[in-house]
Amino acid sequence: MSSQNNIIAFQGQRGAYSEAACNSSFPKMETLPCETFEDVFGAVMEGNAQLAMIPIENSQAGRVADIHNLLANSTLNIVGEHFQRVRHQLLGISGTTLDKIRTVSSHAQAVSQCRNFINNKNLQPILVGDTAGAAAEIAKNNDPSASAIASKLAADIYKLKVLSHDIEDSENNVTRFVILSKNAVDPDPKKKVITSCIFKVRNIPAALYKALGGFATNRVNLLKLESYMIEGNFTSTQFYLDIAGHPSDDKVRLALEELGFFTREVKILGVYLADNKRKMD
User: Fold this and answer.
1) pLDDT, position 233
2) Closest to 208 measured CA to CA, from 268, 263, 164, 157
3) Annotated active-site positions, please?
4) What is the pLDDT of residue 2?
5) Does pLDDT of 65 surpass 80?
6) pLDDT digits over 11-42, tens only?
7) Has residue 255 been placed in a domain?
8) Phi and psi (nearest 5°) for 218?
9) Are 175 and 163 in contact (CB under 8 A)?
């Protein structure tokens, strides 16, 4: 049995884009598929995996639902990020050809991201739970008129034929993943560092404006600011924040201190190196 020190967990079936991200970022680690995001977090918490690869946002589809709440309620730390270019492939069984295809199965987001191709080929879309699951089902049913939108990795795993390569509508289709661990890291402050946190503003006038003012006056770059409802109501709002810089830097330290004056429950999710594809200047 493999040691947990060499295992990285992801959500989905074998061949999912999250597994492709694991292979790209940690090619020497063994991957552990999990049914739900909660299971992925649990795998690391329970010691069955060292790391977790979690999608947090996509350049086309936006925020991945529920991830911010899971991060807020977890003791895991963000220790890195990974940008994965999403390349959708049209997959079919061995021996079929594109002109025989009548239906295409995939996750709703993948179908949406390949809408032009699907319409041009006059294919009937069928929505399923995930892309890799669609590929597995196509392989199982062995129907020459059926296809799936999934990754090249899924094609290799389920021994399917790539009928058409890179069918996504936009070339700017990138998913940002965060890498989670039980143990925090402390990257070199002189490198490109991201600090991620969540917070709730106090219920006073202009609280958010005042809370963020410290970042402006200290010239700290806000990379991402996003709000979302919590506790099932419209009165409690939490914010997710990514900033450029290390908390040991005086400017960042002062900005975070000012954030604390006007907020409650500020929680640092992680301090980590930026992906080399990220532009922070």
Assistant:
1) 61
2) 263
3) 175, 177
4) 47
5) no
6) 999 999 999 999 999 999 999 999 999 999 99
7) yes
8) -95, 5
9) no
Residues in the chain: 281
Do 42 and 108 share a domain, yes or no? no
Q: How far apart are CA 97 and CA 18, in angstroms?
A: 28
How many CB atoms lie under 10 A from the CB of residue 99? 7
Are 65 and 93 in a shared domain?
A: no
The Cα–Cα gap between 179 and 183 comes to 11
DSSP calls for 25-57: H-TTSEEEEESSHHHHHHHHHTTS-SEEEEEEE
pLDDT in tens, 139-189: 999 999 999 999 999 999 999 999 999 999 998 899 999 999 999 999 999
CA-to-CA distance for 47 and 44, rounded, in angstroms?
A: 5
pLDDT tens for 260-278 read: 888 878 899 999 999 998 9
Dmax over Cα atoms in the chain, in whole Å? 66
Residue 231 has a pLDDT of: 63
Judgement on whether residues 134 and 76 belong to the same structural domain of the protein: no
Residues 156 and 96 in one domain: yes
Does any domain span residue 281? no
- Which ranges in the chain belong to alpha helices (H)? 17-25, 37-45, 67-72, 108-113, 115-120, 131-141, 152-158, 207-217, 250-261
Q: What are phi and psi of 274, to 5 degrees?
A: -70, 150
Q: Closest by alpha carbon to 80, among 212, 276, 228, 217?
A: 276
Distance CA 11, CA 88 (A): 18
Closest by Cα among 96, 154, 160, 94 to 130: 154
Going by C-alpha positions, the residue among 206, 254, 269 that lies closest to residue 56 is 269
pTM of the model: 0.90
115, 220: one domain:
no
